[in-house]
Write a structure and sequence with these properties.
about 325 residues; alpha+beta; eight-stranded mixed sheet; three-stranded antiparallel sheet; 2 helices; 16 strands
Length: about 325
């Protein structure tokens, strides 16, 4: 009898380990290869596409110097992609978020709370073979006046080139494509935190960064709030209800959905966006009414202007 119970216990444990291993293997495989987002720009809301305000792109615009070896056909392999070397700390990084009545004020200097690569990309960096970004990370003036509890608009809006949101890690968030209209995370070279600067020195992500802090503290293992889109809706990490990892196919045309989340400390049924590992990675269109922003304002020393770099987005 005792041996039978032991045998059943061993079989259950083995079955559990096999299920865990299979889940891990499936997840790892899904992240090792991703569909390339080139050409997936729409002129209206469409799931899996970027509803971009800019519809025509210059194939010769500034960007990556050459196509990466990690891009194979219509797929790309993130683990094979090079990153910009360096571990530069930013002790003066500042971000403050306050609530004033019905408004949420985000004030920051756009320096990240984590280390970054060394920019401009150096000639002795293996990344230089693929991307010669001359941008230098510089402080910016970030002041966003957002609705505290945003509302879904009657009409969905396109996303601009440049900043579409701001993250709690101090980095700006850009949409999924570069100045050529190609899949930016696949083609352009970022640092180990998936960030890099554009021509005025604005450090930004195009996709999810492991350097963001996601403790999955929301109910059921749902991801934490990682930032705000320009319409005021929250941008959460890659895990949804019951802690399930999300992909683009789980979300609507704007890359979000509605259910209960903790919002300003209170459980609230609210629309929100998610990061995913696959294109378009984050906000695909605006569900709310986005605020207008100005071109990033450079706060570097007056004797050293921002480096020239062609078109604003990278």
């Amino acid at each position: 009898m005792f041996k039978s119970v032991m045998l059943m216990g061993a079989k259950s444990a083995l079955a559990f380990l096999m299920m865990y291993w299979f889940a891990w293997l499936t997840s790892a495989t899904a992240h090792d290869v991703l569909p390339l987002g080139d050409g997936k720009i729409s002129n209206g809301p469409e799931a899996g596409y970027l509803f971009a305000c800019q519809q025509r792109f210059n194939p010769n615009a500034p960007g990556a110097h050459r196509r990466g070896d990690w891009i194979k056909g219509d797929e790309w392999y993130p683990a094979q992609k090079v990153t910009v070397d360096g571990a530069v700390a930013w002790p003066n990084a500042k971000i403050e978020i306050t609530v004033e009545g019905g408004r949420r004020i985000v004030s920051a200097n756009n320096l990240p709370l984590h280390e970054t690569g060394m920019f401009p990309i150096r000639r002795d960096d293996d990344a230089y073979r693929y991307d010669r970004n001359p941008g230098r990370i510089e402080e910016q003036i970030i002041l966003l006046d957002l609705p505290r509890v945003p509302k879904v608009a009657n009409t969905l809006s396109c996303v601009p080139m440049g900043m579409i949101g701001f993250t709690l890690s101090g980095a700006a968030l850009y949409n999924a494509v570069d100045a050529r209209g190609n899949d930016a995370p696949a083609h352009e070279i970022q640092d180990k935190c998936n960030g890099h600067p554009q021509q005025t020195g604005q450090y930004h992500y195009h996709n999810y960064s492991d350097c963001q802090t996601d403790t999955r503290s929301q109910a059921g293992g749902h991801s934490d709030l990682l930032g705000y889109a320009l319409d005021g809706f929250g941008i959460f990490g890659i895990y949804g209800e019951q802690g399930a990892e999300l992909s683009t196919s789980d979300l609507d045309a704007c890359h979000g959905h509605s259910h209960d989340v903790t919002w300003d400390g209170v459980a609230t049924t609210l629309y929100h966006y998610h990061f995913t590992y696959d294109y378009p990675y984050t906000v695909g269109c605006f569900r709310g009414t986005p605020i207008r922003t100005q071109t990033p304002r450079f706060l570097g020393p007056p004797d050293r202007p921002p480096p020239p770099f062609g078109a604003p987005p990278r």
